[in-house]
Every structure is written in C-alpha cells, then in structure tokens.
Amino acid sequence: MNWEIVIGLEIHAQMSTKSKLMCNCDASFTSEANTHICPICTGQPGMLPVINKQVVESAMMIGLATKCNIRKLNEFARKNYFYPDLPKGYQISQYDKPICENGSLEIDVNGVKRTIGITRIHMEEDAGKLVHAGSDNIKDASYSLADLNRSSVPLCEIVSEPDLRSAEEATAYAQKIRQIVRYLGVCDGNMEEGSLRCDANISVRPKGQTTLGTKTEVKNLNSFKAIEKAINIEVERQIDILEEGGEIVQETRHYNEATNSTKSMRSKEDAHDYRYFPDPDLVPLLIDDAWIKKVQDALPELPEEKKNRYMNSLSLSEYDANVITVEKETVAFFEETISFGAKPKDTVNWIMSEVLGTLNQKGIELSQTKLTPKLLAELLILIDKNTISGKIAKTILPQIIETGENAEKIVAEKGLAQVSDQGEIKKIVEAVINENAKVIEDIKGGNPKAMGFLVGQIMKRSAGKANPGIVNELLNELLS
Amino acid sequence: MNDILKLTAIEISKKYQTKELSCSEVTKAFLDRISATNTELNSFVSISEKTALETAKIVDEKIAKSQRLALLEGVPIAIKDNMCTSGVATTCSSKMLANFVPSYDATVIEKIRNNNMPILGKTNMDEFAMGSSTETSFFGSTKNPWNTNTVPGGSSGGSAVAISALQAPLALGSDTGGSIRQPASFCGIVGMKPTYGVVSRYGLIAFASSLDQIGPFSKNIDDSAALLSVISGYDHKDSTSQPNIDTDFTKISSQKEIKIGLPKEFFANLDPKVKELYQDTISILSKEGIIFEETELPSLEQGISTYYIVAPAEASSNLARFDGVRYGYRNQEAKSLVDMMELSRSEGFGAEVKRRILIGTYVLSSGYYDAYYKKAQQVRTIMKNDFQKAFSKYDLLLSPTTPTPPFSFGEKSNPLEMYMNDIMTIPANLAGIPALSMPFGKSNNLPMGIHLMGNLLEDQKLFSIAKKIEQILGFNIQNPYWEK
C-alpha cells in the first residue's frame, strides 16, 4: 500500500532571558548544582510566582515572526503532577489560552516550498533535573538527588499543525524554527545543551485518506539527525504493524539514538490527568495593541526578509542568499564585510568556502577568530584591485585568522603583491617559451591544454605573483 | 492581673510617647501572661521571648531619645503560624511542617519587624487553616477563654484567643472563608478580613490562593484599622496585590446617612437566640439613625457549595509541594519514590486536610472540571455582581457572623455541619470584599459577633461605620478569664 506520513512537531525553546520565568534567579546554565535557586523556584511554602515580562516579549516575538495572532487576555494555568524535580507539584504553563495562535512558516526541501501551520506557542516553566546514583533511572538508583537550577527556567513551546509529510520536512521545519529563534535572539538554539528540544507526533495513513491515523508521540530528539532518524524508524515501525494487519497503540515512545529505535514509555491509559486550572497566584496578563506594536517594531530582520533583500538588491542567487542567511553569526559577518566595500557575491563565496572551511578544520567558531569583517573585506579588495591573486589570498587567509594582521601588511612583508609590470613578466614569458619548444608546437597544433601548462609554468616561476591577465595577454601576443 | 494587658494597642502607643510605659515592660507583661495561661489555653504554638525583648529594647532606646514612634511601633503582636518567619518554625499546626523553619519572612512579617513590633509568638490554628474550631491542629485544640469547654472558632483560633485572653494586644490571622471573623465572633473581639489584595500574601502558606487574605485581630475597631495600615500595601512579590491603595485606614470618615442592607438569604437558618439578639441590635441601631433595609442577594445561597469547590481545588494544588522531598515530614521507611511521597503525605496530613485534597483533586479532574470548578467560578462572578448591585444601594451589608453561638469541643463532628458555620462569612471571600466581625451580644455567657461587609476597596468606610456601631453598642469585651 502507498502510505502518507503525517507529522506534527512540538518544540521547546529555552528563552535566553537573564532571569527565570517566575523569580529573579539567574536563568543561565551552570554545572554547579543548586546554585541558581531561591525560595520561589524551589517551591518553598508561602512563595509566590511573578511573571518575567521579558519572557512574554520573547514569546510575542516568536509569534510575530511566525505570523501568529497574539492573545490580548493571557492566562497562566497549573499543570499538576508529582515528581521530585517539580518543586511545587505543578508546572506553571498556559493551557487553553496560549499567547500565540494560528501562525505559519514556509519550508523549502530540495526546492519544494511548503507552508506549515503553527497551532500555538505558549510560555511555561521548566522543571529541575534529577541525578541518579548507581543507575540512569530513579527505579534502580541507590539514591537520587535533585538539581533545581533549571526549575522555572522559561520555555516557549511551539506546536505545529500535523502538516509535515516526511522526515526531511520535519527536519527542515525544526531547522527553520531554530533559525528564527536565533535571529530573534530569544533562544541560543543549542540542542546539545537542551536549549531546543523536540517531540514528534507521528502517524501514517493510506494515501488519499483524509482522517488521521492513530499517532504516537516520540520524545528525546536531541539533534536534527535524531529527528530525521527517529521519524523514519517510527514510520517504518507503524507501517510494518499496519501492513501485518495490526493496530497502532496511542502512546508516548522514547527514541534511543544508540540503537536507532523507539520504545514505549506510557500508553494513553497511563496518561496523567494534569488537572489544569488557571493559576490563582497570577492575575490575567493583558497585552494591548501598543505593546504588540512596540515588539513588532523592534523585531530584527528575519531570514526570509534578508534572503529576499539579498536577491533583489544585492543580486545574489537564491542559493547564495540561502546559504549565507542560515546562521545569524554568518549573516552578520557577511553584512559587515560588504559594508567595508567587499563585493557581495565574492564575500558569500569566501565566507562559505574559505573562511568556514578553514575554521571547520581548526574546529573553531567564527566568533572565536581574529578575523574581522574589516580584515576580510581588505583581503577581498586586494584581489579586486589585482594587488594579489585569489590563489595568494587563499594562502594568507590562515595567517589572518591566526594573527589578526591585515592583508596588506602580510602581502608587503612577504612580497606577495602581484606583478603587473609588463617588462618583468615578458622576461619570464619569453624564458618559458624558449624552454618549451615542444609545448609551443602542441599549442600551434591546436592542443588547448598545452596553453594551460605554459601558464602554470609562468606562474610557478613568478611565485604566483604574475598578473594572470597580463600573462595571457603576453602569451597570445608572443605566440601569434 | 497586670493592668497593662487591658490596654488597647493605641493606648499602649500613647503611653510610650508620654514615657508612662516602656516597650520592654509591656512586652514582658504579655509574655508573662502567655506563660501563665498557655498551658491551659494552648493558643500559642511557639513563643519568641528573646527576640521580642530584643525588639522592645530597640524601641525603648528610641523612647529614651524621645524619637517619634511610627503608628503601632513597639506594640507587641501575635502571629498565626501560617505566616513565614525567618529562623522561626512555621508549622501551619501540621505534622507535615512541625519542624519547618523558613529562611525568609512573609511581607507582613517584614512590615511588622520594620515597625519594631515585638513578635510574641506564633499562634495555633486549624491544620493548614482548614477548619472552624482549631480542633484540627496537630498540636491540640485551643480553648475559648469565655468558657474552656467551648471552641474558640477557627481557623485562626489561637490569634483570637490571644486577644481575648489578654495574651497580646494585637494579632494577625488569615481568612479564607471566615477564619478571622468567625473566631473573632466566638471570642468576643474584633477581626477583619480586608479587600482581597490589600495585604500581600507573599510568605503566607497558601490554603486557597484566590480567597486567602491576612487581616488584624484586636480589642476594638481603631486598633484593627491601625494594624491594617501597618501591614497593607502593594507588593511586587504578590501579583494579586492591589496597586495604588491608600493604606491609611485610621482616617474616620463621617457620613450623615448610613444605609445598611440586610441579606434575606441569611435569616433562614439562624439559631433563635442569635436571631433575637440580631433583631434587638438592629432596632437599637435604627434608633440611632442608621437605616436598615431587607435586601436580596440570591447567589448567597450558593456560597457554601461554591466555596467547597473552589477552596479544595486550589488547596489540592497548593498542598502538592508537601511531598517529603525538600522539606517537611518524610516517611523514612519507604522503599520507592511513590511510597515515599504517598506515605509522607498520608502520615503528615490530618484527616480534614486529606478530605479537602481529595475533594479538590476530584473537582479538577478531567471530565469534572466544567461541571464543578468552572461552574463555581461562574457563580463567583454572579455573586460579585449581586454585591455590586447591593453596594450601589447600601453602604454595608449586615448579618450575624455565625448562625449559632460558639459550640463545644467535638460538637460538630459531621464535617458538613462544621462547614455550615461559615455560611455568612464565605461570600466575602468569594467576592473579594472587605468584612469584619465585632461583638454585639452574649448568649449563655458566650459572645456573638455581627458581621459587616463593605464594597471592594472600601475598607476604610467599613471601619468608619463599624466604629460608629461600636460606640452605640458599647459591648464590654471583658471575659471571666481576665480575672485569672
């Protein structure tokens, strides 16, 4: 049978605010257990939560960037359940009145564009973390300790419609969300540290059927690769069951990256009754048009807008515009580099291949190098002015990255400036012609490859400094 | 008996300014009284003699230097044991928190400390403020000084007894459905629940967050108004606290015509003796020019049922944090996580607390939420509207505080009967309006209170009219225990 895959993603993005959602504690990550805590986020008796306004604005930003409606009258709800990492015995979240609803974003998989609906975005607080002694789970541990640093750290949960039709689309969607939250500066998008976490609701149905199949929720997707692999393996599992005449059980499944398989965590029957109700400690949060406008006006340029601008006013190809806008850091570097006079197209090529290539080899980030946009622009301008060749430029880039010296200085010190003196080049050209009589014959016999060999020899003898344009000009002149 | 004990808080204040009394002398007098009477009355769970006398010393230094004292500065106070006091056990009269010592002060405690009011100790209460008799305390029940076979009311029974037995000139209680006003009525003193949000709940161990409010106990209206002035005000740490309020409640506004509504819904189940007293009082007050009119607030009849959905629902969630993990009672024998939580909670909470957690968990369950909690919230809105309508016609609404005179220990063993005792007081919590109880008569030598309800944020007007009524009635709050 021909199956259609239906996927919806729930993405938890940790907001990179200074303080937590409900108290003034430092919300940043620390490995020292229970150092970012206070009576409020440890759920001491009598303590009351107070909403961090910054988180509300972050959620509004994500909503506005994904074309959501922003709710004017917001309510926080308590999600009640017992667990030792949940100090109050309930999580403060939003239930039936989320801050953002009915948005969408566009994804592009191999040139095919699709619009994916966003059901809702809501704010909630994170739980703490348990550390188990002698086991990786609480059941077999000799004892377990709670680290409440993460308790009440702000999260935004972004829930998509079941609009995704393949693992590739799901991955592209997750990447897009990551790109947006990073552009907005509201989340660092670090999946390894758990700043961005993803659950996938997956079902399959015969092609053409309009009703949804029974879904499973797959948890623990900690990388884009894991999202893709987990979806594929879960889809395969579901199709196998259905094709053998079985039924899918609605349940929560845990993805194990090591074994590339999913395992049942709990079925629908064991699902908690969270007893949601509006948190009486928090008054309804009112968002007026003026506040929405203020946030809207302060939104940075988003990837999609940047891409279109680059294509329209910088004449970049869609491919170039795409690759340069993927990462916020790269795009900032790009914009600054061209502001110093470097040509956009050359700048994209240099950043994407030479700069990132060199950095990748060294295993460092753009932000950690001594290469500044100004230094890169100076290098590219030297090529543009024919002071050095692209080839020479490539050889000195690692030194700039290493030392932060400017290109002009390196070129001068090492005598790498391109030779454009006709007389000087002519001497070399003549010498090479004289030494390669056989090659000359080949050229005259119509072998174009032989010409390339000759140019190579000339460049070699000039230590790469001869202006290739002049070399070609002279060769043609002398051989005609 | 030391005459100091009979003084009102404001009288004590005045005697500091004139140097007739020192704060240490006053504080010592009350501490002595507590140690002489607490064994019998069991109104205090803990006594903080040392810190109280230290605070008194600071005040005496100011008095010696003839420095001006702030309102009620240096007047000793007793605190209900559900308000967090840094470094001092805060138990909610529960086994669960018997050894719990907070590392922080509630906002009201901070205000009390900043005003150099010596804290005499923490008072007994119904466990987690759930009860109307102080019988559910893990530390044993508190006795009513008017008759030690009689309950003092609850849940703030300890604080009410502290005032009526002259163990403290002032006390703080909390009121979720009548927990200040009902014991004030049973003990023949003044107890007031302010408008919701006038006093910060930060540091008050929550019973039902949307209903809980801290308020004063005192011998008379003036003292309560003064104490509310000290403890009230906007608090950024409590999102539900009222911004921009005038916190001077001592200003007495006089108005020519006072019009008071008498809700019909409250007359039905009155004890005959209470009814008689009530009617007599109304005729006395009428003769003094106060206008009374019977009125209808139909939603009041749903008060108890609404309350017993909302309060347990919130409580079931508020009390979830007592799981034995971070603080409080923990069963040491449990072999698994679930056992540890279940046993700690089963053994740490008393029967009434467990009953309410069960009710609350049930009404919030999926499938029942709309039928119970949501509906109850809708009734609250209707009730608020009924009150708004009534207060457009009347300055206050008046009724007895309780349908019956104070009862004996063990008399109300059926929980529903106990709950009925709060029928008059609960609506004020559901609507968030200010209300107070003040003594107006006696039945079998036991005091009875009348209950005044005011419009939202009209706490000051409530005090003003209550003061006028107090002057007319001239109730003598002295009870037989004063001679002990």
What does this structure look like?
- The complex is a heterodimer of chains A (480) and B (484).
- Chain A is an alpha+beta fold and 480 residues long.
- Helices cover 40% and strands 21% of the residues of chain A.
- Chain A has helices at residues 53-65, 167-184, 224-243, 289-297, 303-313, 318-325, 328-339, 344-362, 373-384, 390-403, 407-414, 422-435, 437-444, 448-461, 468-479, and strands spanning 3-14, 69-70, 73-74, 77-80, 90-93, 100-109, 112-125, 129-133, 143-147, 154-160, 196-206, 216-221, 251-256, 261-267, 277-278, 285-286.
- In chain B, helix 5 runs parallel beside helix 6 (181-187), helix 9 crosses helix 11 and helix 9 (303-318) packs across helix 12 (370-393).
- The longest helix of chain B has 24 residues, at 370-393.
- Chain B starts with 8 loop residues before the first helix and ends in an 11-residue tail after the last helix.
- The model of chain B has no long low-confidence stretch (mean pLDDT 96).
- Classes of the chains: A alpha+beta (480), B alpha/beta (484).
- Chains A and B meet through loops of A and helix 9 of B.
